[in-house]
Structures are given as C-alpha cells and as structure tokens.
Amino acid sequence: MDCKLHQKRIASVVCCLLLAIGMQAQSNQEWRDSLNAINQQIARYPYSVNLHLRKAAINLELQQWEFAVDEYKTILRNDEKNLTALFYRAYAYTHLRRYDLAKNDYNDILLVKPTHMEARVGLAYVYQLMGKRNDALDLLNIVVEQHPDSVGGYVARASLETEMKRYDEALYDWEKAKTIDPDNVDYQLSYIDVLIYLGRKDTARRELNKLSSKEINQGALRSFYQRVK
After folding, report:
1. End-to-end Cα, the chain, rounded Å
2. So what's the pLDDT on residue 10?
3. What is the pLDDT of residues 134-159, one digit of tens each?
4. What pTM, to 2 d.p., does this model score?
5. φ, ψ for residue 46, nearest 5 deg
6. Is the pLDDT of residue 99 over 90?
7. 202 CB burial (10 A radius; 0-12, 13-18, 19+)
8. What number is the average pLDDT over the span 27-51?
9. Which DSSP letter does residue 24 get?
10. What ranges in the chain are assigned the alpha helix state H?
11. DSSP per residue over 88-118, as a string?
12. Per-residue confidence band for 133, with pLDDT thresholds at 50, 70 and 90
C-alpha cells in the first residue's frame, strides 16, 4: 500500500464530520438547483447563519472551494468563534493548498475546544501535507490519548506510521482499529499489510485465511497471498 493510500485514510478521518451536515446524495445538477434555491432564500434573509452554512456546504459538495471560503468568511465576520465555519473553512483551505490558513483555523478551534478530534486530525493532515510528519504524529498521539475509544485516531495514526515505516507502532494501531471495528475489511488488510512488512508471513497468511472464509471480494486478497508465498 503506497503513501497516497495512507494519506487518503487520514483525509477520510478529516472528512468524517461532513456526514454531520445531514444532506442527501444528489447529482451535480441537483446540487446546483439546491444552490439556486438557497441563494433566493439568502436574498430574503441575508443575515441567516444557517442559510450561509447550508450554502457553503453545497459549495463544498460542488468543490467550489473559493465560494465556500467566502461564505465562511461572511459567517466569521459576525461570529469569529463559529467552530463549524472555522472547521469547514480549514477543510476548503486544505483543498486550495493554503496550508498556513488551514492550520490557523484548526488552531483557533483547538484554542476554544482542545478535545475537538476532527480539528486535531485535520491539523495533523495539514502538517503531513507540509512535510512535517513528526509534528503530525505528535498531534495524532494526543488524539488517541483524548479519544481512546474512537477508531478514527488509530486509523489516522496507523496510516501515518505505516508511511513513516514505523511498522511496530502501526501494527499496534491497526490491531486496535480492527478490534474497535471488526467488520472493516480495510483495517484488517492494513493489519496484514504491516505484518508482511515486518516479515511475519505465517501470521499474515493465517489472517488472510480468516478473511477468505468471509463474503468479501476474493480478488482483493489475491495480491496479499502472492506476497506471503
């Protein structure tokens, strides 16, 4: 598994809060229709924070990062500690590769709420993109300490540790992740992946055999079996 996959896993933890928006999956045109409807409502109620948040959420769905940033700026001008606006603006800044600005927003959230898991994971991801992997790892250590029962912290840290070739530590974290979420095949394959890196092919083969008895895509296991021959 290459480093891009590990980075995508960390990014997925950052994105998890997007599920809290509560919006239905729609086509691109349906999102644009929704955006037009929201714009009409904002014309009538220009100071509605909820409407601006909904508009920005649609901008994010359409990958209109600059427009989303503008909406969050509008909200933050009147409420500089609106954590939702800060979080999603940082998310948009990350996509725009404005890492310093994203870092500032995540830090502002943590000043108000030091246990905000998604903000700290997001900050760790930004540090990783900036090439500061040790700083990112320090942040993920705090996430795991603060949220020992959350799978997200272990997944993010294990992904980074695997990328950094710190396989013993990664093995521990993948094992914790698959214990918390035993039905997640990706976590189990990641655990097996690290076992192979550590040269523990017999253990990796036994874990693969357990997976092969389940109703999963056997093609996904084939490349792993090739590696444990």
Report:
1. 18
2. 60
3. 999 999 999 999 999 999 999 999 99
4. 0.86
5. -65, -15
6. yes
7. exposed
8. 83
9. P
10. 3-15, 28-44, 49-61, 65-78, 83-95, 99-112, 117-129, 133-146, 151-163, 167-180, 185-197, 201-212, 219-227
11. HHHHHHHHTT-HHHHHHHHHHHHHH-TT-HH
12. very high
Supply 135's token pair: 């700083």
DSSP 25: P
Q: What is the largest CA-CA distance in the chain?
A: 67
- Helix 151-163, helix 3-15: angle, nearest 10: 160
Structure token pair of residue 125: 């991801």
At 160-193, the pLDDT tens digits run 999 999 999 999 999 999 999 999 998 999 999 9
Contacts of 159 (CB under 8 A, 6+ apart): 5, 6, 7, 9, 10, 190
**Entry field: residues in the chain:** 229
pLDDT greater than 60 at residue 24: no
Would the pLDDT of 27 be above 80?
A: no
Name the CA dihedral angle for 61, 63, 69, 71, rounded to a multiple of 10 degrees: -40
CA distance 224 to 222: 5
